[in-house]
Structure formats: structure tokens, C-alpha cells
Amino acid sequence: MSRIKQSMLSTTHLIFHGLQDHVCRIIANLPENVNARLKSGLLAAHQKLREYYYQFDQSPFYTWAALLDPHIMYHSLKEEYADNDDLLMYLKTAKQKLCEYYRDHYASHLSTPSQIPSTLPSTKFSFTECFQNKSRQVLDELDDYFKQVPEPFDDCRPLQWGLGRRAQYPNLYQLMRDILAIPGSAVAVERIFLGGCDTISLRRASLSLQPDAI
């Protein structure tokens, strides 16, 4: 967890899964004469992590963020879920819904470089060309992204990665920016509001923009 500088939805998803696997390995390697209370506590922790992990199904954004995170992507999740048919089916459905969401809200907002003419238009005109280009663009950006190799965690920041490839993935970048910018933890947000008590304490809670006349 210390290697992750930003708390994002995608890394939150993996942290819970990684913690669950780590606790599971600890339990498997416990000696036979281990204290019963210690073993019971580890089993309870594993069960709690399992409950949290499967609650991610209630929102698609956790898996969508993992799919759009250049550290993880579809192939890494597919390998991670190889032994669980239910998770594989869930991953396939989440990817399909992400594609649909992308097409409905982002795919046609901007033009890809392939649509920008490099020379003057020819004398020939095709009434269906704009529709043909649009249908190709809908699939090209997302399909090409899923073909990329995941980036190392230490050498890549997801939002900066998308910004650097904005010319290649103009529409996909808008989707990545909207989803990957969602904080994976409310701690930083809560800290901002808690810091407000240093400015407006309980004794100064009635402060207004206009100073009172003396």
C-alpha cells in the first residue's frame, strides 16, 4: 500500500483483494499449536475483507476504474480471476457495460486524429463517409487501449498517462479523467472538513460575511 501515492478506486479494489489473499496465506501457514484467539481473529478479518470485496459489485465504478487504470487493465484482472468463474463472468459483464457507457456518453464527443484530413478534400464525396468514420472511432480507441501492456506501478501515474496520450485517445481520456479522478478513500475529503474547525470553531460558528456594526 505504501507504493501507491494516490488513493484511487482502482487501487482500492486491488488492496482489498491483496489483503484478503495475504491473510489467507497467513492462516494456511499457522502452526497447529497456535493460540485459538489469534486464529479466530484472523478468520474474522478474512471474512470481513471478503464481505467488503464482494460489496464492490454494488457499484460498477470500482471495476471500471480498474479496467481504465493502465497499471491493471482487463488482462491483469482476467488472470487474477482465472480460478473463479463467477468473478470472470462479472468482469466480462463489467467490461461490456463500460463499453456501452463509453459509446453512449463519450465516443462521439471529439474527433480522433484519423478523422482530421491531412490534405485538401478530394472532388469525390461520399454521403456515408461520416457515419463510417464514426462507427470505426467508437471501437478503435477502447479496443486499442485494451491491447496495451499494463504499466509498472512505480513508473506511471494513471491520470498523467491518460493526459500524455490525449491525442491518441481523446474520447477515452475524458472517460478516464472522470472515473480515475474519483478518490478511493474519503479520508482526505474528511480531513478538509475537519480542518474547518481551526478557522470557524464552535464559539465562532455564527460568523458572517458582513462584520457587525459596533
Can you put this structure into words, describing what you see?
With 214 residues, the chain is an all-alpha fold. Helix content is 56%, strand content 0%. Helix 1 (9-28) packs antiparallel against helix 2 (36-54). The longest helix has 21 residues, at 85-105. It is elongated and about 85 Å long. The chain starts with 8 loop residues before the first helix and ends in a 20-residue tail after the last helix. Mean pLDDT is 76; it is low at 113-121.
If you average the pLDDT, what whole number results?
76
Overall geometry comes to elongated
Beta-strand proportion:
under 5%
How many strands? 0
Radius of gyration: 24 Å
Helical content (DSSP H or I, runs of 4+): 55-70%
Low-confidence blocks of residues = 113-121
Helix-strand category: mainly alpha
How far from one another are the termini? 55 Å
Helix and strand sequence: HHHHHHHHH
Largest sheet descriptor = none
Helix run count = 9
Which features does this protein show?
9 helices; mainly alpha; 214 residues
Brief synopsis:
The chain has helices at residues 9-28, 36-54, 61-68, 73-80, 85-105, 129-146, 158-164, 170-180, 187-194.
